[in-house]
């Protein structure tokens, strides 16, 4: 038996296992997850019966049904597929890490102040996908520099703009009083209000990060890629936003890089001698 014949099934199993893993990870927590789970259950049962009892007509129908199933997947997971395609063009390195950290601190300070004052808030941090295209109501154009004071003014209870969501792009507040799409998930329970459903719904259709502050209890939550995380602390929120928005670029030490290159070329001894300073003769005479 040739080595290629042994390697072929291993590669096939590896590709199938990877594909199934990422497919399950992709549909987990989405609106179509329950539909796909039920459909696959029925399909497996029908295919098993058709194989056992040799039902030729049913087998023929199942073979043709695969093409229609691909179209059904595109329809069911249209928001998730659009979000995934939008992320392919994401470039997080266009803004400096220092500026991103300042933007993050602005959001965190605002969320903390609103939480302490029991004022509800819905803040969408836009990335590549246009948030405004998914809004059922575009809200009011603001276009000003983002600051904790400005955001707190917008979400003040007596303000006419406090009910909707705010869209932030970079370090600027673009729009306020926007109506985001509500999530249709059935597993949220009655404890999740309109703000949480709107934040989760927007994260299902775009790549935006949505910060939600509960008006009743003051809890801070965030939604991203169709996942909702509730009751987070200030440090948890800072860590999450830093992971998403701050580019992970490590500074390159040119001297260490050059020494490593010399070591690979077999010149490590010479570079090591240059790197370690030798004691001068005057110091040796003083010690003696």
Give me some keywords for this one:
single chain; 288 residues; alpha+beta; YojJ-like (1; seven-stranded mixed β-sheet; 7 strands; 12% strand; disordered C terminus
Structure description:
With 288 residues, the chain is of the alpha+beta class. It has two domains: 86 residues, no CATH class; 149 residues, YojJ-like (1. Helices cover 53% and strands 12% of the residues. Strands 2-4-3-1-5-6-7 form a seven-stranded mixed sheet, with helices on both faces. The protein is elongated and about 70 Å long. It starts with a helix and ends with a helix.
Give the overall shape.
elongated
Rg over C-alpha atoms, rounded to the nearest angstrom: 28 Å
Content-based structural category: alpha+beta
* Helix-strand topology string: HHHHHEEHEEHEEEHHHH
Overall mean pLDDT: 78
Sketch the major β-sheet.
7 strands, mixed
Count of structural domains: 2
Give the helix tally.
11
**Do you know the CATH topology of the largest domain?**
YojJ-like (1
The CA-CA distance between the termini, in Å, is 75 Å
Main CATH class of the largest domain: Alpha Beta
Strand content: 5-15%
Helical residues, percent? 40-55%
Give the low-pLDDT segments. 249-254, 267-288
The total of beta strands comes to 7
| Assigned CATH superfamily of the largest domain | DNA integrity scanning protein, DisA, N-terminal domain
CATH architecture identity of the largest domain: 3-Layer(aba) Sandwich
Biggest sheet, spatial arrangement of strands? 2-4-3-1-5-6-7
């Amino acid at each position: 038996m040739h080595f290629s014949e042994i390697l072929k099934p291993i590669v096939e199993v590896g590709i199938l296992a990877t594909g199934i893993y990422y497919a399950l990870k992709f549909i987990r927590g989405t609106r179509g997850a329950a539909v796909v789970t039920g459909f696959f259950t029925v399909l497996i049962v029908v295919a098993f019966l058709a194989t056992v009892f040799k039902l030729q007509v049913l087998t023929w129908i199942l073979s043709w049904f695969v093409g229609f199933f691909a179209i059904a997947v595109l329809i069911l997971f249209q928001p998730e597929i659009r979000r995934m395609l939008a992320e392919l063009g994401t470039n997080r390195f266009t803004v400096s890490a220092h500026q991103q950290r300042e933007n993050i601190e602005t959001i965190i300070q605002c969320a903390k102040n609103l939480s302490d004052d029991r004022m509800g808030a819905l803040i969408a941090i836009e990335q590549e996908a246009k948030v405004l295209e998914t809004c059922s109501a575009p809200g009011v154009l603001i276009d000003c520099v983002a600051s904790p004071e400005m955001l707190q003014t917008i979400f003040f209870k007596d303000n006419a703009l406090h009910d909707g969501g705010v869209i932030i792009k970079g370090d600027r507040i673009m729009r306020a009083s926007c109506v985001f799409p509500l999530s249709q998930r059935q597993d949220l329970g009655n404890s999740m209000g309109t703000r949480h459903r709107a934040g989760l719904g927007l994260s299902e259709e775009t790549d935006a990060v949505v910060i939600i502050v509960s008006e009743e209890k003051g809890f801070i939550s965030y939604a991203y890629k169709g996942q909702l995380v509730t009751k987070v602390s200030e440090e948890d929120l800072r860590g999450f936003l830093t992971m998403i928005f701050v580019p992970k670029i490590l500074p390159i030490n040119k001297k260490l890089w050059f020494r490593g290159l010399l070591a690979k070329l077999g010149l490590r001894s010479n570079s090591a001698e240059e790197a370690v300073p030798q004691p001068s003769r005057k110091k040796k005479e003083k010690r003696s």
